[in-house]
Amino acid sequence: MKTIQKKIMAMLMMAMLVLMGVCPSPASAVNEVGRVLLTPICMNDGKTVKGTAFAIYRVADFNAGKFTVVDALKEAGIDLSQWQTEKQANKMAAEVKRRHVPVAAQATAQANGMVVFDGVSKGLYLVVQTKTAQGMTSALPFAVSMPMQTQAGGEWRYEVSAQPKVEIEQKPQVPSKPEGLLKPSTPTTPPAKPSLPDLFQTGQLFWPIPLLVVGGCVAIGCGWHLYRHNKRKR
Q1: CATH number at residue 95
Q2: Is there a domain that residue 40 lies in?
Q3: What is the pLDDT of residues 199-212, one digit of tens each?
Q4: Is the pLDDT of residue 139 over 70?
Q5: Using CA atoms, how far apart are residues 39 and 107, in angstroms rounded to an integer?
Q6: How far apart are CA 148 and CA 195, in angstroms?
Q7: What does the alpha-carbon distance between residue 18 and residue 12 come to, in Å, rounded to a whole number?
Q8: Alpha-carbon 178 to chain mean position
């Protein structure tokens, strides 16, 4: 009896081992999907920002633990080894827009401000904010990996969380008018020209000259006549 029980137990254990070898684990399933959770945070006060919306763009496939750029971005020169840097995220955003890469998914914030993307397949995704909360700036584009490895050689996680950072929008300040300065008034009539001082008339009028010439000639004539008359008497 004990022999039969041992055989049954051995067969059950072998069956379990076979099933474990045939059925893939969740982390290695080919069609494994996950979710991306975004919680926008205000950098000024650390509070969750509500009323936003985001879109994700697939920029790379994920196979055997490695990323491969999608066909639409093959010639874009994206460095996947630096996908977590701001520089590469900005480059991805520019190339996605320029090459018209289709949107993989879009989501609007829930009542608590969280933005959830469900059913996200394996790959590298660019996250772009599409709706800004009133009075806030937009978050910079960034990339997320599905799945996300907790550490080098560690576990692959299929629920990825991120906190896009935004700020309170600063309105440009209008410079105030300085006090104590009066606006110069515009003269309605041109100022009167200054009057010139009265000048003596000497040398300014010419009408006495002819009279003086005639008078001089008459005097000369009279003198000459008197001179000859006196000479004859002598």
Answers
A1: 2.60.40.10
A2: no
A3: 545 555 555 666 66
A4: yes
A5: 12
A6: 94
A7: 10
A8: 31
